[in-house]
Amino acid sequence: MKTTFICYPFCHNFQESPVQWAQAVVFAVEEINRNPFLLPGVRLGYHVMDSCARHPYSMRAAFSMISAGDRTCETTRPVKLIIGDASSTQCIILSKTLSPLYIPMISYLASCACLSNRHEYPNFFRTIPSDVYQARTMAQMARRFGWTWVGAVVADNDYGLLAVQVFQEETKGTEICLAFVRTLLREQLAKDVDHAASAVQASSARVILVFAWYVDVEAFLTELVHRNVTGRQFLASEIWSTSSRLLSNPQLYTIAQGTLGVAIRRAPIPGFKEHLHQLRPSRYPRDTLLRVLWEKTFGCSPLQNSSQSNLPPCTGTESLEQVENSVTDVSNLRVTYNVYLAVYAAAHALHSLLACTMPNGSDSSMTSGCSSPDKITPEQLLEHLKMVNFTTQLGEKFYFQDGEIPAVYDLVNWQRGPGGTLNYVPIGRLEGSQLIINDSAVSWPGSSNKIPVSVCTNQCPPGTRKAIKKGLPVCCFDCLPCAEGEFSNVTGSSKCHRCPPEFWSNSVRTACVPREVEYLSFSENLGITLTTVAVSGSMTTAAVAVVFVYHRQTPIVKANNSELSFLLLLSLKLCFLCSLVFIGQPSPWSCRMQQAAFGISFVLCISCILVKTIVVLVAFHSARPGSASLMKWFGPGQQRGSVLLFTCIQVIICTVWLSFSPPVPHHNLGIQESKVILECMVGSVAGFSLVLGYIGLLAAVCFLLAFFARKLPDNFNEAKFITFSMLIFCAVWISFVPAYISSPGKYSVTVEIFAILASSFGLLICIFAPKCYIILLRPENNTKKFLMGKTK
């Protein structure tokens, strides 16, 4: 049986790394042929051809291998398995072409996620993880280090374009977005490099994702150096993250320092170093790659016929033992180890296929699952390749799961060495989906050695929220302050949170603080003013009472039942004092006392005035002939009883109201948002309305009676003054209703206190000021004859 590593001899731009990969095939095949336990009695063969990283070359090489029709390569037997190609695009083409023929392929470097589709690529296997995992790794690194604004420069093929697609899928729903995507196509590399460098130079993104072949990356980075572009953090794909060609380029020492890369896992190949040191063109005379390597390394031609070369002939003593280049460097075998594993996977599949016939050497015992070396079909080999399971020389389990191997990556960081050169240093590992990074071991770009910041917009500070800009990616946003009553206490918040009901946001909207409790207190200016007025009114009432007591035997005091006058003064004093109950922090008892004291005090006051008005009317009507008996029916006892009856009705209303639905303290949160208004809720609106309505009814009746008695023939007609007092009283309380409803918070309490004080002062002044004027300033008029109008 023969396997093939696809290469085609006529290519330019010689690269050293593929020479080492080709030698891994040679070494593995020779090692297997020496192994008495693996494929005993079977000798493997190989043929190496150069694909030149172009699909036409790959296709030509593949068809020449499977048809055995290319005499140039001297292939005498069709191959049953192909190891290659390195490029994902070439593998896609080859797999679709070779799939109908059931010829299996094992790639060592084609990592495109699309090749995981077993329905489209049933004959494809690989010893490198899918790009899905390294794209996920880069997305995880972007999230880990807070990079939300990332640029991308990728190969213009399935390898690069699908890697960007996976990166976008992994970051979907996060705040990470791509600032730009530029592609590099080998056929127009100079033009694409110029466009990509311009995008990097113009963009504010400081982190650049690069999925491309290392030769293209070198041209791209060199162009950035020529443009003096610095301070960029590159995320390298596995194809160039460990490239010795880039690391050894002095031009790139500054711009590439700090690069973070996903690298194929590293593993040693015992004996491979000695194999490389023993290489001689004379040992492998048909190896074109080895001949070109000798010419590039030693400057001589190993050909026996030197006329075919312009170089002097080699002496035959040249050796790679003292040469240091990409071919001889076996300190970090990554892709080379993948090639080595691919050969061993093919060998174990073949061993499994032949195992049931080889012990006795009989071909007659063959079944559908077994075969002989001369009758192996690609279809049989393909089926056994799916079931490959063996332990490597390093003690690791190797198997294919739907053509894939478990995802294991090294994470590397490009750091400056003692001589200023670049070296890649392992800083972590990816196993499956678990990302492990030693942050302290990372060397970042620039002299500050700090994690680069790559954001379209800086994170919104606490107290603000993100507002996406229309037409821009999600990572580009404005920072808007939180509204009143809302807060955000973390950086980069996408929304503001509402404060709890009893709290309000502080001035910078970063936290909720308890709302200021507001009520009409005795310590504030408004409370002091109202208290002063109420106390003044009470003291004035007391002073009037003292004057009346001192002059209680005078006609003006004795007129119209002096008991009612003293009772009226007492009720006015209570009216003034009840306003003080409305000031201060509301409590269950103060809320009940407010309306009860107010309602009963004013009913007592209006009842006294109403009875006095009735007395005036009865007194004048009893003076008419035949009406002398009227006063007998409305004497002092009846007057006191009437006041008591009117007042008891209000007491009953208040008692029922306070028993079933009393006023209670209430935290009003809806008037002033930053404050809690502590107020008394009336409880039952019907009860409150009955209290006010009853006061209004007595006042209206009193006003009407006083209005009818205002023109009675007396020098001192008290009904006239009662009319004025009731007019003021009604005007105050009619205007109170709309003012009370429209006043917020503590000002509604202020309006009610003002109405109480204003109406109380109106009653006190209108009823008692004229009497005090006569008593104190016109004592000569304080006679019965004057009051009855018998003297002028």
Describe this structure in words.
43% of the residues lie in helices and 14% in strands. The protein is built from 22 helices and 24 strands. An eight-stranded mixed beta sheet has the order 7-6-8-9-10-13-14-15. Strand 9, helix 8 and strand 10 (260-264) form a beta-alpha-beta unit. Mean pLDDT is 85; it is low at 1-9, 70-75 and 357-368. Keywords: Cell membrane, G-protein coupled receptor, Glycoprotein, Membrane, Receptor, Signal, Transducer, Transmembrane, Transmembrane helix.
Summarize the structure in short:
Keywords: Cell membrane, G-protein coupled receptor, Glycoprotein, Membrane, Receptor, Signal, Transducer, Transmembrane, Transmembrane helix. The chain is rod-shaped and about 165 Å long. The protein is α/β, with parallel strands linked by helices.
Determine the N-to-C terminus distance: 152 Å
**Oligomerization state:** single chain
Number of strands: 24
- Tell me the structural class: alpha/beta
Note the main sheet. Answer: 8 strands, mixed
Mean pLDDT: 85
* Alpha plus pi helix count: 22
Give Rg in angstroms: 53 Å
Strand content: 5-15%
Strand line-up of the largest beta sheet: 7-6-8-9-10-13-14-15
Helix content: 40-55%
Poorly predicted residue ranges: 1-9, 70-75, 357-368
What does the overall shape look like?
rod-shaped
How would you summarize the topology of this molecule?
Elements: E1 2-5, H1 17-34, E2 45-48, H2 55-67, E3 81-83, H3 88-98, E4 105-107, E5 124-126, H4 131-144, E6 149-155, H5 158-170, E7 177-184, H6 189-202, E8 207-211, H7 214-226, E9 233-236, H8 244-247, E10 260-264, H9 272-277, H10 288-298, H11 335-354, H12 378-386, E11 389-391, E12 397-399, E13 408-416, E14 422-431, E15 434-437, E16 464-468, E17 477-481, E18 486-487, E19 497-498, E20 503-505, E21 512-514, E22 516-518, H13 525-550, H14 555-558, H15 562-578, H16 588-622, H17 630-633, H18 636-660, E23 664-668, E24 675-681, H19 685-708, H20 718-742, H21 746-777, H22 784-787
Parallel strand pairs: 1-2, 1-3, 3-4, 4-5, 6-7, 6-8, 8-9, 9-10, 22-24
Antiparallel strand pairs: 10-13, 11-12, 13-14, 14-15, 16-17, 18-19, 20-21, 23-24
Helix pairs in contact: 1-11, 2-3, 4-5, 6-7, 11-12, 13-15, 13-21, 15-16, 15-21, 16-18, 16-19, 18-19, 19-20, 20-21
